Amino acid sequence: MSEVVSRRGVLAGLGLVGLAGCSRSIDMSAFDMDFSPTGTIRPKVSVERSLGGYQAMYGSMQDGPFVLPAVPYEKVPREFRRQVVQDPTGEAPGTIVVNLQERHLYFVQPGGEAIRYGVGIGKEGFLWSGRAVIQYKKEWPTWTPPREMIARKPELVKWAGGQPGGLDNPLGARAHYIYKDNVDTGYRVHGSPEWWTIGQAMSSGCVRMINQDVIDLYNRVQNKATIVVG
Predict the structure, then answer these.
(1) Following DSSP, what letter does each residue of 152-171 receive, concatenated?
(2) CA–CA separation, 191 and 15 (whole Å)
(3) Residues in the chain where the model's pLDDT stays below 50
(4) Do 104 and 116 touch, CB atoms closer than 8 A?
(5) Are 105 and 209 spatial neighbours (Cβ–Cβ below 8 Å)?
(6) What is each CA distance from 228 to 48, 130, 133, 189, in whole angstroms?
(7) Which one-letter DSSP state was computed for residue 39?
(8) Over the stretch 81-90, which tens digit does the pLDDT of each residue have?
(9) Do 58 and 210 contact (CB within 8 A), yes or no?
(10) Secondary structure of the chain: what % helix, strand, coil (to 5)?
């Protein structure tokens, strides 16, 4: 495969060839393209084709009764920002794959691609791995700390009956509930208001995402989708 990617080929891949014909110039910086040679691997598109760039992905947004604050994406390492990559998992389209070592979550797409998101994972001693399903999912979920967590942090007893969904809720804007063999594992893929923790091992075992990213994932994932964590 040639290591040179033509401008027209890139525009065609983005559906912009027609646009280029009626415009003097196109500001490709909005698409944050990676033109570096990749040998036998075709170049990746660093931002999703249907979006205009990281400002669109991580800007402030109204979501139900809440206004999510913008995320200063420049402070998020590039490897943990949402992007389309060549699928490294080999799983069927629609599958979620969490790579604990990389701290990446892949949502497998048709055609050999995946949408990759940065995630935070559980700290040592709290990790879970395996193959399971997303039994169901919720918007602005209620968070109920486990009894073990309340024992470690007695100040959480005020939420023993559940903390309502909201901007300060530890489950963030969305939660995906992981079940194995029809039994709740207690682990979730969920949002977090603490965007700066993405890429770190800090939680009690759940997989955390930037709120804007978990909303994007929520809109794609079907109930009973397979999830692989390892």
Answers:
(1) H-GGGGGGTT-BPSSTT-TT
(2) 31
(3) 1-46, 51
(4) yes
(5) yes
(6) 23, 6, 8, 12
(7) T
(8) 999 999 999 9
(9) yes
(10) 20, 30, 50
